[in-house]
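call fold(seq) -> tokens
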Amino acid sequence: MNEAIGIEGVEQVYPNGTRALLPVSLGIQRGEFVTLLGPSGCGKSTLLKMVAGLLKPTQGHINVQGLPAGSDRAKQALSFVFQEATLMPWATVARNVRLPLELAGVPAKQAQQKVDEALALVGLSSFAQHMPHELSGGMQMRVSIARGLVTQPQLLLMDEPFGALDEITRNKLDADLLGLWRAQGLTVLFVTHSITEAVYLSSRVIVMGARPGRVLQEVKLDTPWPRPADFRASAAFVAQVAALHEALALASDPDLEALL
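ret:
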């Protein structure tokens, strides 16, 4: 079985009756880089949290690596990188990265080796004993990614991790993330508001609409790998950005959608 995530008829209705997410069915294959793209309130983060087992669907079910989402074994197969780095300010970079291993009871010697490997993957080996306040925003996010990778997950869930960073730093981290994805054989489910980021990163983009949240369109991006920095200036990139702009304009305008 090659399916990393299976989402079947999943919806979310809050206790006050608000339908946050209409039924969604979606399959994500192992090794894919899939991005959820859409306006605020379209259910991107809600869907990501349900895959992670942090939120239970009102209806439907989700499987992660063939296991029920939220089960202990499913949680062990994935890591979640949030919008903010959420580092412990009183702990060193190494201790922040080590935290998931400590919680899992991994022996200290084995944990240290895994921490060293994770920091090397994100280029922060020489910053292991620094404190979070000594790092830039981009470096703090690298620590957060290292913490996500230290458990050697098969699936990486990322909720707008670079949204608060400047464009230069964001582009650099996007490129680094692609390198990690390919080198580690990860499956990535990524949330963003940025069309250009979605086009640069993704093998497939899920365009979502709001009020209530739902999937409007799936767009496969078959531009070959690797994607160097100058890909952003290519005709293929510009054309794909334009197509997603059109799809996202529709997603943001339910009145326009009703007319088409």
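Residues 256-260 have pLDDT under 50 and may be disordered.
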